[in-house]
Design a protein that fits this description.
Layout (H helix, E strand, L loop, with lengths): L1 H7 L3 E12 L13 E11 L4 E6 L6 H16 L7 H11 L7 H21 L4 H4 L7 E8 L4 H14 L4 E5 L6 H15 L4 E5 L6 H11 L6 E3 L7 H10 L4 E2 L6 H11 L4 E2 L7 H14 L3 E2 L5 H8 L8 E3 L17 E2 L13 H4 L2
Parallel strand pairs: 4-5, 4-11, 5-6, 6-7, 7-8, 9-10
Antiparallel strand pairs: 1-2, 2-3, 4-12
Helix pairs in contact: 2-3, 2-4, 3-4, 6-7, 7-8, 8-9, 10-11
């Protein structure tokens, strides 16, 4: 009888959604996306015993009303009345029910936000942080300072990188392409290395801004500056192109943020030439990010999740093949208790679930 009562307390009784828009504390100058505000779709999952878990989606390029409609029309009916004690089964249920319309894009992003909320609700129900549920460890994890945006220009990128270094970060990420010519990019990388010295890691993000031919042309001219990696140089689904690029340079080539679930990441895994994959938690949720990480480990590939470190840290603290966390500070001013880096590391919170609560003015439905 006790077990039955406990199981009843895990039943999802309501799912609520809310669209909100909040100013950036420091608007990102990406150079190719105009981001004036943080546009969020927040999801609340509540069980019959009144425990609430939250998830959110920040798609960057709009579509919040479409995502909200997908949750309310296609996913909510599948989850109401279900128990949260087997979230992997719920993920598969949503995946199969949206297979005709989905597999990528809107349906997977909507699933992901709901999946994050379900895991948060489960963790809060059993009063355990997610990293603990997944047999991880509460330890300091390396994080790089991201957001040395190309829109800041040559001097601005270097200035922001130096700020990160002054805060104790051991690696930073700068951007190339879109706003610059190849020659300008090479100069920017050269000058960043000269300013930071040889002991600071420099990641370089192209944001799919080059062709295969450009990448093969530019890489030999930046190899001497020893980039830690070159990120997403070409379009995310050009698997043959990535194979050619990887064969052309000793610079580690990384990618994955714009690929959806393990299905879309699998060609990189099988190719075994991408040493680090960067899955985005908004393109698969906790459930698939865990699965993708375990699958990548079988191929000897590490995981450095894209953005959202306050959520993804639970994964990185739990898997056998972690790499870096990415920090830009976009959401620090949105949380009641932000997760802040210290000397270039982040440590997962001991609060139950993912442990992150929006400030009252943001999170109230």
């Amino acid at each position: 009888m006790v077990e039955l009562c406990e199981r009843k307390s895990l039943i999802v009784s309501s799912i609520k959604t809310k669209i909100t828009s909040v100013p950036f504390s420091d608007p990102p100058e990406t150079g190719f996306l105009k981001l004036e505000k943080i546009d969020l779709l927040i999801i609340q999952v509540e069980t019959k015993n009144g425990v609430i878990g939250t998830g959110h989606i920040h798609p960057l390029a709009g579509g919040l009303k479409t995502l909200e409609m997908c949750i309310n029309e296609m996913l909510k009916p599948l989850i109401i009345g279900e128990s949260i004690d087997n979230i992997e089964a719920l993920w598969n249920k949503m995946w199969k029910a949206t297979f005709i319309q989905g597999r990528m894009g809107i349906t997977v992003m909507a699933m992901s936000a709901l999946d994050i909320a379900l895991w948060d609700c489960y963790g809060r129900t059993i009063e355990m942080p997610l990293w603990n549920i997944w047999k991880g460890k509460q330890k300091a994890l390396p994080v790089y300072g991201s957001g040395c945006y190309r829109g800041l220009g040559h001097d601005g990128m270097i200035q922001k990188a130096k700020k990160y270094v002054g805060q104790g970060f051991k690696s930073i990420k700068m951007q190339v392409a879109h706003c610059f010519s190849n020659d300008e990019d090479i100069v920017n990388v050269r000058d960043m290395r000269n300013e930071l010295g040889k002991d600071i890691g420099i990641m370089i993000d192209v944001n799919q801004g080059w062709s295969v031919e450009e990448t093969i042309k530019v890489c030999p001219q930046i190899e001497s500056y020893e980039p830690e990696w070159l990120e997403e140089p070409i379009m995310a689904d050009d698997f043959d192109g990535y194979d050619k690029v990887c064969n052309s340079t000793p610079i580690p080539i990384v990618t994955g943020e714009n690929n959806f679930t393990h299905h879309d990441l699998l060609p990189f895994m099988k190719g075994k030439k991408i040493p680090i994959l960067q899955p985005d938690i908004m393109r698969g949720g906790y459930t698939n990010l865990i699965y993708s990480s375990k699958l990548a480990n079988k191929f000897g590939i590490k995981i450095a999740p894209h953005m959202f470190p306050e959520l993804s840290i639970h994964i990185v603290a739990s898997i056998e093949n972690p790499s870096w966390l990415e920090y830009m500070g976009w959401y620090d001013h949105l949380w009641k208790e932000p997760l802040l880096p210290k000397n270039g590391t982040l440590t997962p919170t001991s609060r139950p679930g993912h442990g992150m609560d929006f400030k009252t003015e943001i999170g109230v439905f």
